[in-house]
Amino acid sequence: MAQDPYQELGVARTASADEIRKAFRKLAKQHHPDRNPGNKAAEERFKRVSAAFDLLDDPEKRKKYDRGEIDADGRETMRGFHAGGSPFGAEFEGGRGADVDINEILSEMFGRGGGQRGGFGFRSEPQRGGDVRARVEIDLEEAILGGRKRIAFSDGRTLDVTIPKGAAEGQVLRLKGQGAPGRAGPGDALIEIAIRPHPIFRREGDNLVMDLPVSVPDAVLGAKVEAPTPEGPVTLTVPKGSNSGSTLRLKGRGLPGARGGRGDLLARVQVMLPEGRDAELEKFAENWRKSRPYTPRRRG
Q1: 180 closest CA partner among 129, 127, 111
Q2: Structure letter (DSSP) for residue 96
Q3: Which spans in the chain are helix H?
């Protein structure tokens, strides 16, 4: 015959439903087979604790036990003579509280698959290890071209991670089997990608935007100028009469798109005066202003 369920859970016969549940949670967590692999004594204690909670958590069963109508195994007895009961039959008043059962409590404590009810005992399902998370910062060029980065986890492990081409801000890479160990296998490692701000390029959707400094003569007369791209410098043709804000487009030199392909690189012309004062340029500007005055139009 099973032991007195009150003694098994270590609670008084007048304990409330919440006190009984709290005692069960503590003991179940301590003796759960997943916490004690290969420990038969802990497994047996876990079964007894589960059976005791199963009886005392049910208001009707608890009343019958307290009155001596059933024993600790839930079997009917000669009224008033059960082995573990009190002759005074401490009555338990009230309902089952939140109407919880062993599966619900174990699910809260151990996650999904915490266990399955089976007969008078309890069969534990092996638990998969938990997932671990980390964050990695990459350069814009690495997001476009891909690469490898070494990740350090809080448990001291390091792992080399392949950054895929076209990686996006906030994208999460899942590395199977690289998480915490568990009886049913390890969890996964989840790596969140963050892209560092770039000193030259700005992101606009799948496009990259940059400022392209151009001298006054090159803007007026047109020229071929060197411009940076994520893959290296290229030569751009600046048309005659280019103004600041004019945009030169390099097809397919932007960011990889979600549907394949790449966006464009937009080079926005910035007409720049020479540094320092230039007497000849000032004289030319004075003559120009007198002979050919004009008012620039507002853009936008």
Answers
A1: 129
A2: -
A3: 5-9, 17-31, 40-56, 59-67, 102-110, 140-145, 216-221, 279-291
What value does the mean pLDDT take over residues 194-212?
Answer: 91
Q: Where are the domains of the chain?
A: 5-123, 132-195, 202-291
Say which CATH topology domain 132-195 has.
HSP40/DNAj peptide-binding domain (2.60.260)
Distance CA 1, CA 73 (A): 7
Enter the pTM of the model. 0.48
Range 164-168 average pLDDT: 85
Instruction: Answer yes or no: CATH 2.60.260.20 is held by domain 202-291.
Output: yes
Q: Which tens digits make up the pLDDT trace of 132-161?
A: 888 899 998 898 888 999 988 877 788 899
What is the pLDDT, as a whole number, of residue 294? Answer: 80
Percent of the chain whose pLDDT exceeds 70: 81
DSSP secondary structure, 129-159, as one string: PPPEEEEEEE-HHHHHH-EEEEEE-TTS-EE
Q: Are 37 and 24 in contact (CB under 8 A)?
A: no
For 5-123, which CATH class?
Answer: mainly alpha
